[in-house]
């Protein structure tokens, strides 16, 4: 091949590749490439708060995971029952230090969530509440005061057999909104207890729609006005004055806010 042919062939490769790449590009990919995040651009964390790793909650969560992977999303899936996360000791050291004094998976998971673009939180209903595993994560995860979910898009998933799933759902929804996150979907599903649950067509459709909405909300940076207003009031009239009154006892929190450009 002459040098001229080589140059022509090189140009051909560059042009066809550029065409191929630009057809794949959307706003999020461009931003991700420019900021060096790479092509596996969207990172979603899925957390199963059920002690049953093959129960109904996890079946729903895995269906959402499957739908997201089909959209080339990078998904990290966690069963809380398989992680070592001790209960919060209530020492409030994290507010001063910016991290927990307990050296287990609690802070690790919280950091993984902090570095993601979106979160799917799932729990079974236990006595009209979230599961014990989920509650431990909520207490240990630095959610509300530190605003862990600032501008992240989230789905909440609650399953229940009888009564109370809406109460449990409200707990997760409030957690997301009070932590600065946006709720792209909230799923509360009735499920009969089964050893090996199988999803109905209706359930699969709910999962598919929620996955599409999550992907779309991240891609298009959707920030619903009502949720924005709620964030504004919760942060500026609730959390911020409370933390500022505490002064140096909450130095770690203020440092995290600065890192997140919240203040
Ligand atoms: C200790 C315990 C408490 C429960 N409490 C409720 C409840 O208050 N309301 C409800 O609708 N279902 C309740 N259930 C049923 C579960 O929420 C339901 O079967 C759920 O789908 C199980 O999810 P899993 O298969 O992911 O574990 C309870 C189950 C257990 C084991």
CATH topology grouping: Rossmann fold
Assembly status = single chain
Low-confidence stretches: none
Mean pLDDT: 91
CATH architecture grouping: 3-Layer(aba) Sandwich
Brief overview:
With 263 residues, the chain is of the alpha/beta class. The protein is built from ten helices and five strands; from the N terminus they run ααβαβααβαβαβααα.
Could you explain how this protein is built, in words?
By secondary structure, this protein is an alpha/beta fold. It has one domain: Rossmann fold (3-Layer(aba) Sandwich), CATH 3.40.50.360. Helices cover 50% and strands 14% of the residues. It has 10 helices and 5 strands, in the order H-H-E-H-E-H-H-E-H-E-H-E-H-H-H. It has helices at 3-24, 27-34, 56-69, 93-97, 105-114, 132-140, 165-178, 201-219, 225-246, 251-259; strands at 43-48, 74-79, 118-124, 153-160, 182-190. It has a 5-stranded parallel β-sheet, with helices on both faces. Helix 3 packs across helix 8 (201-219). It is globular and about 75 Å long. The model has no long low-confidence stretch (mean pLDDT 91). Flavin mononucleotide binds at residues 50, 52, 55-58, 124-128, 159-165, 191, 193.
């Amino acid at each position: 091949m002459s040098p001229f042919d080589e140059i022509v062939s090189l140009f051909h490769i560059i042009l066809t590749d550029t065409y191929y790449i630009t057809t794949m590009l959307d706003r999020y990919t461009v931003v991700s490439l420019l900021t060096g995040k790479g092509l596996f651009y969207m990172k979603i964390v899925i957390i199963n708060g059920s002690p049953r790793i093959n129960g109904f909650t996890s079946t729903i969560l895995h269906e959402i995971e499957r739908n997201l992977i089909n959209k080339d999303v990078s998904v990290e899936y966690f069963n809380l029952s398989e992680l070592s996360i001790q209960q919060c000791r209530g020492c409030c050291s994290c507010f001063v230090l910016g991290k927990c004094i307990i050296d287990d998976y609690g802070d690790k998971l919280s950091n993984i969530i902090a570095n993601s673009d979106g979160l799917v939180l799932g729990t079974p209903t236990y006595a009209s509440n979230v599961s014990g595993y989920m509650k431990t994560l909520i207490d240990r995860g630095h959610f509300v005061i530190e605003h862990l979910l600032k501008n992240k898009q989230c789905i909440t998933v609650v399953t229940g057999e009888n009564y109370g799933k809406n109460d449990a759902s409200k707990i997760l929804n409030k957690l997301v909104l009070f932590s600065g996150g946006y709720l792209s979907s909230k799923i509360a599903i009735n499920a009969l207890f089964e050893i090996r649950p199988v999803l109905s067509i209706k359930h699969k459709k709910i999962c598919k729609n929620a996955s599409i909405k999550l992907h779309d909300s991240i891609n298009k940076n959707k920030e619903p006005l009502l949720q924005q207003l709620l964030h504004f009031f919760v942060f500026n009239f609730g959390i911020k004055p409370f933390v500022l009154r505490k002064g140096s006892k909450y130095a770690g929190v203020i440092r995290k806010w600065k890192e997140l450009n919240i203040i």
